[in-house]
Amino acid sequence: MAEVSGHELVLARGDGAYLFDEDGRRLFDAPASLWYCNVGHGREAIADAVAAQMRRLEAYSNFEHLATRPTLELAERLADMAPLDEPKIFFTSGGSDAIETAAKLSRRYWSVMGRPEKQTIVTRHLAYHGLHGFGTSITGLDPNREGLGDLLPNVQVPNNDLAALESVLAERADVVAAFFAEPVMGTGGVIPPAEGYLAGAEALCRRFDVLFVTDEVITGFGRTGVMFATELFGLHPDAVVFAKGVTSGYMPLGGVAAAPRLWKPFFEEGTSLMFRHGLTYSGHAAACAGAMANLDILEKEGLVEQVAELSPVLHDLARGFSTHPLVSEVRTGVGLLAGVQLSTPQLARAVAAACLERGVLVRVITNGTLQLSPPFVSTREDLDAMAGVIGESLEAVAR
Ligand code: PLP
């Protein structure tokens, strides 16, 4: 905090895959902000849809019997799109809220099933699931958990190690509510799963009667070249968590798509059971209107298909850096995502600064990794130019 104070880069405007700072300098948005600006900046159709809804009715409570039309429409659209049969959609204001919701729903489910001791959530080393109470408790990024006192019951297992997951579940399934997994780990450094790992983890969850939840906050809505990575990896989770790409960040919105197993107990005829959870802005009408306009763009412009075409281009360009002496590892291979890890975080920051001087904004994440997750509207030429700048910046820092 002290280091950046007084050195803000103030961004004034965006257009497609590019940003402009207050001095008018044009920058390529290599991370799509925090992995979310999928349809690109400056989309008037989304701004217009949000403004029109705000003029009609900005938002209203969606508690109990109350509802707003864009909320119902978006819930139905997402229920059709989601990689689950007959899901129900629970809306939140963002990803951390959605993780909180999925974690509470998992625990509430087991309580209703007469097994209230099943409370622990299992995740992986380097996992990131936001920063609220549950997200902070279950992260595999240790610095995010420091100095906060007692956290909620959690266990972290090594990534891509089914034997480790099996032994935790074999020993403790009686207290484990769920396993949460990002299909491609994002903030931990862009880490795609080993072949078969996620399906294997799901099978273990089934065997030990533990819920399986995919956190698609980054991967959802096309980032991996299909609508949801859950489909790409052939998974059948009990819940899918989403945020970011549902609005491309134009409005704050997230949610959980829950499978019938999780929602049915609360909807049975005559039941007085209830999942007592809801946020002031759950199903915010203007945010939902923005999401509808964003999904229209995604579909009409074939942007998910564009991701499928662009992804191998990004993979090849990123892999080109793997032999550079400053680079310790390149992780890529799934979707429009790559992580270029430098030998030290200091070097990564120096390379990011050199990129900025040359017109490319890159973000440094865990262990000195450069996050490359450009907007879906990027072109091959944009990616070539970005890689050119990263290459020059590596050379400049090496010199
Ligand atoms: N889950 C994952 C996988 C994320 O990457 C993030 C944010 O980056 C979150 C959850 C939390 O989302 P938010 O920052 O919208 O609260």
Key structural traits:
399 residues; alpha/beta; Aspartate Aminotransferase, domain 1; Aspartate Aminotransferase, domain 2; 7-stranded mixed beta sheet; 4-stranded mixed beta sheet; 13 helices; 15 strands; binds pyridoxal-5'-phosphate
How does this model look, in words?
The two termini are 29 Å apart. The chain has two domains: 11-30 and 302-398, Alpha-Beta Complex (Aspartate Aminotransferase, domain 1), CATH 3.90.1150; 44-300, 3-Layer(aba) Sandwich (Aspartate Aminotransferase, domain 2). The chain has helices at 32-35, 44-57, 69-81, 95-112, 133-138, 162-172, 197-207, 229-232, 260-267, 285-300, 303-319, 345-357, 380-398; strands at 11-15, 18-21, 26-29, 88-92, 120-124, 154-157, 176-181, 211-215, 239-242, 254-258, 327-332, 338-342, 360-361, 363-365, 369-372. The radius of gyration is 21 Å and the shape is globular. With 399 residues, it is α/β, with parallel strands linked by helices. The chain contains 13 helices and 15 strands. The protein is 39% helix and 17% strand. The chain binds pyridoxal-5'-phosphate. The site of pyridoxal-5'-phosphate has 16 residues, from helix 4.
